[in-house]
Amino acid sequence: MADGGGTPLRVGMVGYAFMGLAHSQAWRTVNRVFDLPFRVEMVAVAGRDARAVTAMAERHGWAGATTDWRELVARDDIDLIDVCTPGDTHAEISIAALASGKHVLCEKPLANTVAEAEEMVRVADQARAAGVRSMCGFNYRRVPAVAHLRNLIAGGRLGHIRHVRAAYLQDWIVDPEFPLVWRLRKEIAGSGALGDIGAHIVDMAQFVTGQRLTGVSALTETFVHERPLPEGGGRGQVTVDDAALFLGRLSGGAVATFEATRFAAGRRNALRMEVFGSAGSAAFDMERMNELEVYDVGVPVTGQGFTRVLVTERDHPYMAAWWPPGHIIGYEHSFTHEVRDLIEAIATGTDPEPSFRDALGVQRVLDAVERSAASSSTWTPVA
Amino acid sequence: MADGGGTPLRVGMVGYAFMGLAHSQAWRTVNRVFDLPFRVEMVAVAGRDARAVTAMAERHGWAGATTDWRELVARDDIDLIDVCTPGDTHAEISIAALASGKHVLCEKPLANTVAEAEEMVRVADQARAAGVRSMCGFNYRRVPAVAHLRNLIAGGRLGHIRHVRAAYLQDWIVDPEFPLVWRLRKEIAGSGALGDIGAHIVDMAQFVTGQRLTGVSALTETFVHERPLPEGGGRGQVTVDDAALFLGRLSGGAVATFEATRFAAGRRNALRMEVFGSAGSAAFDMERMNELEVYDVGVPVTGQGFTRVLVTERDHPYMAAWWPPGHIIGYEHSFTHEVRDLIEAIATGTDPEPSFRDALGVQRVLDAVERSAASSSTWTPVA
Amino acid sequence: MADGGGTPLRVGMVGYAFMGLAHSQAWRTVNRVFDLPFRVEMVAVAGRDARAVTAMAERHGWAGATTDWRELVARDDIDLIDVCTPGDTHAEISIAALASGKHVLCEKPLANTVAEAEEMVRVADQARAAGVRSMCGFNYRRVPAVAHLRNLIAGGRLGHIRHVRAAYLQDWIVDPEFPLVWRLRKEIAGSGALGDIGAHIVDMAQFVTGQRLTGVSALTETFVHERPLPEGGGRGQVTVDDAALFLGRLSGGAVATFEATRFAAGRRNALRMEVFGSAGSAAFDMERMNELEVYDVGVPVTGQGFTRVLVTERDHPYMAAWWPPGHIIGYEHSFTHEVRDLIEAIATGTDPEPSFRDALGVQRVLDAVERSAASSSTWTPVA
Amino acid sequence: MADGGGTPLRVGMVGYAFMGLAHSQAWRTVNRVFDLPFRVEMVAVAGRDARAVTAMAERHGWAGATTDWRELVARDDIDLIDVCTPGDTHAEISIAALASGKHVLCEKPLANTVAEAEEMVRVADQARAAGVRSMCGFNYRRVPAVAHLRNLIAGGRLGHIRHVRAAYLQDWIVDPEFPLVWRLRKEIAGSGALGDIGAHIVDMAQFVTGQRLTGVSALTETFVHERPLPEGGGRGQVTVDDAALFLGRLSGGAVATFEATRFAAGRRNALRMEVFGSAGSAAFDMERMNELEVYDVGVPVTGQGFTRVLVTERDHPYMAAWWPPGHIIGYEHSFTHEVRDLIEAIATGTDPEPSFRDALGVQRVLDAVERSAASSSTWTPVA
User: Fold this and answer.
1) CA of B351 to nearest chain C CA: how many angstroms apart?
2) Which tens digits make up the pLDDT trace of A181-200?
3) Is the N end or the C end of chain D the one with fewer CB atoms within 10 Å?
4) What was the ipTM of the complex prediction?
């Protein structure tokens, strides 16, 4: 009886590391908690190491495994390709999948360069005409507190937005002896903190405000220049930023600060966003992702203050699917929500968000950040 | 390839409401994230409404569904019965299952009366001799922060425990028009806040300190005496406590306060525990279940304070199975951890905790609370 | 020009330790920040050690010093006696002062026994007939957040009060080598944590709710029975409680828990109070005394939560006298507010609160607590 | 006996608004709580409105009042001039006072222009040769938690500093109908949020790290361009920034973000600073000024986290003068600490900090910020 009923949505996934695990649980879970028009079938996963990918498939419920992602793209019995690889292969895989008529969910950042991202958007636009959907995996949009914040702003509850203060603070490479993993190498990762976590706060700022970043002034820094090679045998050069700081202006008149770093000792995953408007304000911290602090200018002054809303009510975004109020959810749920929205979009023939175009917008901001940082922080309009 | 390999552990579940959903996700998830000697098979679920239980089975991955729990107990192809019904049926189902040689996981409270619980322990002891395991579902023991707290105390990090301050604050019946659901009727639920949530803090206090409650002084209160019948047609009598407050002494010399209420407006699921010892202290709040605040008397005075530990490190209990540090987990994960520990115990032929005897101990505390409350709060030793 | 103008209110103070210092700053400051009908004159301070009391007078702005408090009581040029001694001398000094027609501000607890307190009330009642005012120094009533909470409750904002959760947690004697100071000796202090800090939370609970405690069930505990004598030469017996825990019922139907302890390692001065009502709730912690967390049942559910009100607005109690919003005040300000209210009462011929009778009420609760603790925690009505 | 003994330090103050009140209480209080070589005499205060300044003098304990600050500078019986006026008169008054041999405490920002500040430094340097002392009033340095943070960093406890994240968030002009007070007019205030509150976080960042800002990239914004005139009769132009945001680099290799705004709805006085280093981190918020959160990289990983240190121990800076641990102090105490340090410096013949030169350094940063903001945010070295 399990897995029975409903039109199947047959998924193939490429990549099986951190994001592959997070997406696997999402595909496995989504039909259990949401009423959906499609029933997910986890058809196969592709990865470079045959033994590892096979073990991963068995463990996480993929019916098949392969070392060649092209095989997945070529299969007739797959409807959607989920791209969970590092950024240097996003473009190639996504484009091939779209070209073969498969919906694509691509992890963020969309690509390592603007040029790649533009090509992906071009192909996605063509595919859309044929009813093929594409989406970029900025999963934090699907944290209920973040979606709730967007709704508050869209509903005018914060008034005109004056300030966005965004920071994504991590600390996993504070130790200079931490090895030179792929995320510290430009040829694979594209950039460092900027593309990995800076991309998230750029997307979130644009998402919650409904505005675009129009220009930036930036600096980047690499604090530790050499690290031990993970495979042993000496040290190698860190070729990405450890931290990226930038100022920005939003299309609706707000000013903003952004800070992405892997050197904030003690901050494990502190994605924080404060938004100040003419009618209210809000503050979010991913380390307490079930909470949103909200301030309302209109309250009588003796009662004013930030209200700690536990975003676990049935009427909060996504939360009717889960537990009674006050019973919190975790990081992984954002991915379940993400594939839920993607499935809904495919079923209704609408474009899921964030689109590749939205993600290209983020990429262009990151590009402007790098150009500004390379040009004495000079103000750099976002293309 | 999915679900392949390993010795099967064939599970039948009775009950399909809140706890049934929480347990379903646990059984479905546990092999994905933990390396285990058994592979869970979700054989069938039993519930009173044929249509509803069938739908639930389909959705949540149970291969079969039935309206008769005795069928599950009678089947040869089931190894373990998971009892998720209200407390009035725990004893009958658990005893039948144990008697037919099936391992049992029974939700808390173990039973609605001490007598029932004692009988369950008797049967469980007999079954144990035949290698049949039994466990009571005090899932909060498996919150990593709680397990970590127990380890700190067991390792002597807090010294002699002086104080336990425990509260379980909820607010779902503050509105006097909230209907008279089964949890508000003594004949089904046994008691009100006391057995439902008070049981959790009693178990947690005993678990983290490794001590038993030796006596209590208590009062209970029902604030709203009549409520609308859920089926409509007038009002009925609330026959359980809305709140239970008690003082206690622990076998190791600590004193304790307990407060369980469903009338703490604004506290959705605030299970809080503070423990103060001669060498250190700790504080926990289930609404921020990934955090434990820890104080160390031995730190130089200018650096003393409560440290907010984000209990998400690989070296924290259970957390190596999940996400990178700082990526939090949710309420449901406690159940995944619970069945993981149960499976390990079955595999290694050891007794899982909390045993039915542990749960009987909790029941005896609840019983002493009710007797004290009925006797002018007079000090009442726990049997 | 300084100190010029206005009718003088001539103050004599007895005692010059912790409370003497706190009161000195209050008398010195009150005319600077509040518009008052009287101008305080700090006439003289009395203390047992001539050298010490003289030095204290010079430093803290008292015009004179004496070793004999009776001298102060006898002087014609003193209008008010401020009693800041340990509890064993409160009755004698206050009664003498009132008898000689002087207003009295007496530190809490009012006395060490109910009998003494009753006698003080009798004398105070007589004095009142002659326009002589008396007040007990429960200074925490004058913390703006606490006064604001009282106003919220008095205005019906929290509805019917269901629960009061009060705790006063300190840790200054966790170390068993901390010496046997006077506060640990029953003959001087009357009781331990109970009278010293338990008195505060009893008064605060009654003050904010406007209700009286009608009965209690209690236990007390002394964790460390012998301590080094402060003067050296061996150890002496601790004759007071280290901790007092009690349950209570309030005249308006609420139930309550109280916990006063000096063994809460890491909690320096954590006077906490939570109040849950049918329409709202509030939470206070003296370690963050400028904040009050307030919950409103009536807010739409997606916006519900505790609002952290920074109680520093001009429209908050007492705060118009101080700094712009957001600029916090400290512990000592509660005393300035206390003498401000006392002066206003004297000027307007009204009775300041808390009256000796209010304080006697607290004393009777403490007495009931001790009797319950001595009687197997049996429910003990407050006289 | 009051005010008796000790060498007098005779103070004259210019200005009697917000800062005048804060300084008055400091001068009045400092000898009460600290052992000092000088006894403060509050000789006279100068202000433009005769009636108002006289009333202020009477109330706050100044022996005399005048409408002409030059009178104070000319008097023989005044040793120190305390400049509490708006920034446009700081230079003239301070220079005149120094020239007449009087020590000067000048409120921040030191001046409205770098040129003025340079002249002030020049005169201060000359005066120093004659034993005349000068100090700028960056009072937040004297918040115990901030001084403690500096000590931690100076002692190497945080290692190499990587990041400073500073923000000073206020909200008093969010309402567009708030009037055009002097702080919104460039000719008086010099700048807006930048000089008023941005100056504080620049000074604090340099103070706690012991490093200088070497360059900045900035943007400024004015959200509301016209406001009602305070005197009525129409609207006038806001000629200062409402918000200033900038990135910076510190001389020791750290990168930094700064944000000063008066449009952060709900943040009354949120001066926040986070410092991340190779060995530890710390976080401060002026709204909870008695707390410092400290993180130590060296702690075993399962115990890592930010420790909330209540900075109220006798061994914390300044705190031995106040109350027992856990009893918090307020905003105004920072000024008492400031004049205490100034008096100590005068007595010991050392230079108090921050010197005028330190304050000029801040001014140069502000100047670089304005120049960068006017030049497309281009990186601008600090002179």
Assistant:
1) 35
2) 999 999 999 999 999 999 99
3) C
4) 0.95
